[in-house]
Specification:
The chain is an alpha+beta fold and 349 residues long. The chain has helices spanning 19-36, 40-70, 103-110, 124-137, 182-187, 190-204, 264-275, 333-341; strands at residues 93-94, 114-117, 141-146, 156-161, 164-171, 174-181, 208-209, 217-218, 221-222, 225-231, 238-244, 250-258, 282-292, 295-304, 307-316, 321-327, 343-344.
């Protein structure tokens, strides 16, 4: 009999575990789990974290900028224009740097005077503390600091060196440097205060009158003065004069041109040409720049025939017109009173 076929024994191999399969299975498992996770619980905290991160970085950036601005190390300190051995305040800018070629500015500097625009938010205390330290390093002798409102002395910080005096004081957002005599530094310009007190007492002793409501300036004038308005060659703009009763003293406010159309000394020259006649000749002797209500003004001495008179060239911010204010009398109390108290029509009292 034929032999029955022998059945082969089939060996079943166990599946080999591969490291790749392990990772593949894990990846598949995680993927399944992620699908089950609610994404809103992940996105919301992430958005909040990003917002707070931006706020933090913004605050750090602002603080960094402020530290950089307030640090004197970032500024180049030089001598004040017109003065030796007097350092500039960090970040300040020469007030007349765009008018360096102006003859008036040159004369102002040549007399040992200067003025700088201060960085914003600079206080007078910061100025005093800075110069109290820096000037002593340069062998300046400190005399005194006179606070604002001192009745018998001029406000400011006073110093002496090599027989010369120096006054440093803040005005609006500026710091001003004034060369004075050694005696004036020691007295803190008490002689000028005495003159001002006499002038203020004169004005305070009188009843006041005002200018017309539509006039671009406002000022109270003692009733001892007659007010007179007169036409000019500037359309509807009028000049106004104040004549003291029983005296030849008179003060005039005269419009001369559009503000910023030319330099102030040219306006003053125009005024002299307008006022000059065959019998009366006006001319400019000298001028110095001044600060007048946050703008640049001009204080001048004029020759009128054989007389010497004072003049101020100032701008009115209300109508943007430059005016020249003069007096027929040198050292006129009314003229100085006007410059200290006159305001544009829209100025706050």
């Amino acid at each position: 009999m034929p032999k029955a076929p022998v059945k082969e024994h089939i060996v079943r191999r166990k599946s080999k575990k591969s490291i790749f399969n392990i990772f593949k299975n894990k990846k598949t498992t995680k993927s399944i789990r992620r699908k089950k996770t609610n994404l809103k619980y992940l996105i919301l905290p992430l958005i909040v974290l990003i917002i707070f991160g931006f706020i933090y970085l913004a605050i750090r950036y602002v603080l960094f900028i402020r530290e950089g601005v307030s640090s004197d190390k970032d500024y180049i300190i030089t001598d004040v224009v017109g003065l030796d051995n007097v350092p500039t305040y960090g970040g300040s800018v020469f007030l007349f740097e765009n008018n360096m070629d102006d003859s008036v500015v040159k004369e102002f500097i040549s007399k040992g005077n200067s003025a700088y625009r201060l960085p914003s938010n600079t206080t007078s205390t910061q100025i005093e503390e800075y110069y109290f330290v820096e000037l002593k390093k340069l062998n300046w002798e400190f005399i005194q600091t006179v606070p604002i409102g001192t009745p018998d002395k001029k406000y400011g910080q006073y110093w002496i060196k090599d027989g010369k005096g120096l006054r440093i004081y803040s005005k609006f957002n500026d710091v001003w440097y004034e060369s004075i005599t050694q005696e004036d530094a020691k007295s803190a310009l008490a002689n000028l205060i005495k003159e001002e007190i006499e002038r203020e007492m004169l004005m305070a002793s009188s009843e006041k009158q005002t200018l017309l409501p539509d006039y671009p300036w406002k000022i109270d004038i003692p009733k001892e003065y007659l007010i007179k308005y007169s036409p000019t060659n500037m359309k509807d703009l009028r000049a106004v004069s104040f004549q003291k009763i029983g005296s030849t003293e008179a003060v005039e406010i005269y419009p001369v041109g559009k503000w910023k159309s030319k330099e102030l000394d040219f306006f003053l020259t125009d005024y002299c040409n307008l006022k000059s006649t065959e019998e009366l000749i006006y001319g400019v002797i000298n001028s110095v720049p001044i600060s007048f209500r946050d703008t640049l003004g001009l204080q001048s001495t004029l020759q009128r025939n054989s007389d010497v008179i004072d003049a101020y060239t100032i701008a009115n911010t209300y109508n943007s017109i430059v005016y020249v204010i003069t007096s027929t009398q040198s050292d006129s109390p009314l003229l100085k009173y006007l410059i200290e108290n006159i305001k544009p029509l829209d100025a706050k009292d």
